[in-house]
Automatic annotation (TrEMBL):
Quaternary structure and interacting proteins, as annotated: Homotetramer; dimer of dimers.
Site (described: Part of a proton relay during catalysis): 46, 109
The protein's name in its UniProt record: 4-hydroxy-tetrahydrodipicolinate synthase
Residues binding pyruvate, per UniProt: 47, 204
CDD domains on file: DHDPS (cd00950)
Family of the protein in this entry: Belongs to the DapA family.
GO molecular-function term, one example from the UniProt record: 4-hydroxy-tetrahydrodipicolinate synthase activity
Cellular localisation: Cytoplasm
Organism: Paenibacillus gallinarum
Gene from which this protein is expressed: dapA
Active site: 135, 163
Length: 294
């Protein structure tokens, strides 16, 4: 499965009642594909506020995104959790909805060891014919999938990629040791270009909601051998990469990017509790940051 190089972890639009805003979801999908040049969309990932979405909402989102994207971009369903049984059921529902692949996060809170994580991902992969992307983000899950376990999982036919957020060293070692056809994605916008330079294939991005077309240009410049242009674009975009998460102190994802989207005219609404909207100071910082883009 070719997911492309620029994958956007899509926010979930909410209306004033805190329910999914379906009309705005369709607008957002069009915008991310047509304007921001996303090759694929992750639906109901962390950026989509998966912890506060019900399973019914997730499956409805999967189906809606597949139908609206209509083949213009791949749809990757966030179906991972810290329960293997639950992840299998949701993955199978996602497959029925017609998605192109699933994103499976490392189990959080219950802190499995490497063998437990291997068996968790193995069981889910065997329950579906869909391509699987692993997701290692120890800053959120505490447990970290090791290089060795990742490469062991890469031998399973339909485990085809990983979104790696542990370290650049880990990106390097996985990219070096992975079998042909297994791709590594960075999960950190500011590391997109550095990760490409050590063997990553692309990025699963949050900033691409706002600067996706420029990120696509940066990636394509690097891939086509114009490293100087790619470096120049990286340096230009870097303040946006950092600012969306550190405005003016670290903000939980997707608080900043949802606010940024509203500034660009997309009625994606606020976030569900326990996340809260940006403070007045934070909103001012984000407004000034976005104003610099154009």
């Amino acid at each position: 499965m070719e997911f492309g190089r620029l994958i956007t972890a899509m926010v979930t639009p909410f209306n004033d009642e805190g329910e999914i805003h379906w009309e705005e979801t369709s607008r957002l999908i069009d915008y991310l594909i047509d304007v921001q040049k996303s090759d694929a969309l992750v639906v109901s990932g962390t950026t989509g506020e998966s912890p506060t979405l019900s399973d019914q909402e997730k499956v409805e989102l999967f189906s809606f995104a597949v139908k609206h994207a209509a083949g213009r971009a791949k749809i990757i369903a966030g179906t991972g959790s810290n329960s293997t049984h639950h992840s299998i059921k949701l993955t199978q529902e996602a497959e029925k909805a017609g998605v192109d692949g699933v994103l499976l996060v490392v189990p959080y809170y219950n802190k499995p060891n490497q063998e437990g994580m291997f068996r968790h991902f193995e069981a889910i992969a065997k329950s579906t014919s869909l391509p699987v992307m692993l997701y290692n983000v120890p800053g959120r899950t505490v447990s970290s999938l090791s290089v060795e376990t990742t490469l062991r999982l890469a031998q399973i036919e339909n485990i085809v990629a990983t979104k790696e957020c542990a370290s650049m060293e880990q990106v390097t070692l996985i990219a070096t040791g992975a079998p042909e056809g297994f791709t590594v994605y960075s999960g950190d916008d500011s590391s997109t270009l550095p990760a490409l330079s050590v063997g990553a294939y692309g990025i699963v991005s949050v900033a691409s909601h706002i600067i996706g077309s420029s990120m696509k240009e940066m990636i394509e410049s690097y891939v086509n051998g114009d490293v100087q242009k790619a470096t120049s674009l990286h340096q230009k975009l870097f303040p946006i990469f950092k600012g969306l998460f550190d405005a003016p102190h670290p903000l939980p994802n997707p608080v900043a990017v949802k606010y940024a989207l509203t500034l660009k005219g997309y009625e994606v609404g606020s976030v569900r509790l326990p996340l809260v909207a940006p403070t007045e100071q934070e909103a001012k910082f984000i407004s000034e940051l976005i104003a610099k883009i154009d």
